[in-house]
Design goal:
heterodimer, A: 113 residues, mainly beta, five-stranded antiparallel beta sheet, B: 113 residues, seven-stranded mixed beta sheet, four-stranded antiparallel beta sheet, globular
Chain lengths: 113, 113
């Protein structure tokens, strides 16, 4: 059974304090790993898709990396507006990269000024 | 990125009535749309997969007669909560796929009194 585990559950940072969020996965044949940002009361906002080990993608203060067992979302010099829940997801077993997704429980990031 | 809209954003209804939620992909055609439910401080739970022109596929434990899904066109899917009860109160989110990524709507907050 596919599993996606995110850690930590919650992370509190001071503004400018860089850190990383982890997403560990157990799937039979990875067909992509997705990162989303979700603000309270809103739908998830697409951030990145990673397809193969060693791949990296960047967007502003965020960088996502992928290995064969886990993905990291690195946050460099975070600002209070980066506060949100960050979700990772993988396609269901046997599915396509654009099909049903299995989500991790999310990491709640709070950045204090 | 691609834009997915949902309407209404908030709805309050009385127990026993039905509520319809619309999900539209605004700038791309989506052959597949998904409906999720999210409880407070929890991750997204997939309810059903909706394919244009065919019956929706429901996840185990989701009552298909209570949650009616229609995917009438490549840009519109609707979720109707029939005979709503207070336990149906939740945050409902749709997503649409363009074969590469999956984009989420802003969500609909349903409150059943």
């Amino acid at each position: 059974e596919d599993q996606v585990t995110q850690s930590p559950e919650a992370l509190r940072l001071q503004e400018g304090e860089s850190s990383s969020l982890n997403c560990s996965y157990t799937v039979s044949g990875l067909r992509g790993l997705f990162w989303y940002r979700q603000d309270p009361g809103k739908g998830p906002e697409f951030l990145f898709t990673l397809y193969s080990a060693g791949e990296e993608k960047e967007k502003e203060r965020l960088k996502a990396t992928l290995t064969k067992k886990e993905s990291f979302l690195h946050i460099t010099a975070p600002k209070p507006e980066d506060s949100a829940t960050y979700l990772c997801a993988v396609p269901f077993a046997g599915g396509t990269s654009y099909g049903k997704l299995t989500f991790g429980q999310g990491t709640i990031l709070t950045v204090h000024p | 990125g691609a834009v997915v809209s949902q309407h209404p954003s908030r709805v309050i209804c009385k127990s026993g009535t039905s509520v319809k939620i619309e999900c539209r992909s605004l700038d791309f055609q989506a052959t597949t749309m998904f409906w999720y439910r999210q409880f407070p401080k929890k991750s997204l739970m997939l309810m059903a997969t909706s394919n244009e022109g065919s019956k929706a596929t429901y996840e185990q434990g989701v009552e298909k007669d209570k949650f009616l899904i229609n995917h009438a066109s490549l840009t519109l899917s609707t979720l109707t909560v029939t005979s709503a009860h207070p336990e149906d109160s939740s945050f409902y989110i749709c997503s649409a796929s363009d074969y590469y990524e999956q984009y989420f709507g802003p969500g609909t907050r349903l409150t059943v009194t």
